[in-house]
Design goal:
Blueprint lengths: L1 H9 L18 H4 L13 H7 L1 H17 L2 H15 L11 H7 L7 H5 L11 H9 L3
Protein name: POMP protein
GO biological process, one term: proteasome assembly
Family: Belongs to the POMP/UMP1 family.
């Protein structure tokens, strides 16, 4: 009788193939957050895309100016510093202020909209701290 059940198990599909993928997958709120239709829509105004990429465009202009004035080494050094500073973060469930990045860009003493009303995209992420840390480290 045990041979009969083993032959039946051999013909079954492994459980790994039942993982959530494709059009019928379940949405993981812990890792991906709430779904929003607004994120999938096109920009409603032509300037909206420009405003979203304002800091990127400003950095590019500053790097071009710096390259013309001081040579290729200056923007490359600054880009390496930006990259190193962006990697320093707090734990995934805590808000990171990125004060070092603001200092490198020269925005440390400027008061902006996100300082007063807080940018919703940088708000504190609520969740299970242990699960979020394990996911960030690749243990899950």
């Amino acid at each position: 009788n045990s041979r009969g059940t083993s032959s039946l198990l051999k013909d079954t599909i492994p459980l790994t193939e039942f993982s959530a993928s494709g059009p019928f997958e379940g949405h993981d709120l812990l890792r991906r957050g709430f779904t929003s239709v607004k994120n999938e829509l096109m920009p409603s105004h032509p300037l909206e895309l420009s405003e979203k990429n304002f800091q990127l465009n400003q950095d590019k202009t500053n790097f071009d100016t710096l390259r013309n004035i001081q040579g290729i080494h200056a923007p490359l050094k600054l880009q390496m510093e930006f990259r190193a500073v962006k990697q320093v973060q707090r734990l995934p469930f805590l808000h990171s202020s990125n004060i070092a990045l603001d200092t490198l860009r020269g925005n440390a003493e400027c008061i902006g909209f996100e300082d007063i009303l807080n940018d919703p995209s940088q708000s504190e992420v609520m969740g299970e701290p242990h699960m979020m840390m394990e996911y960030k480290l690749g243990l899950l």
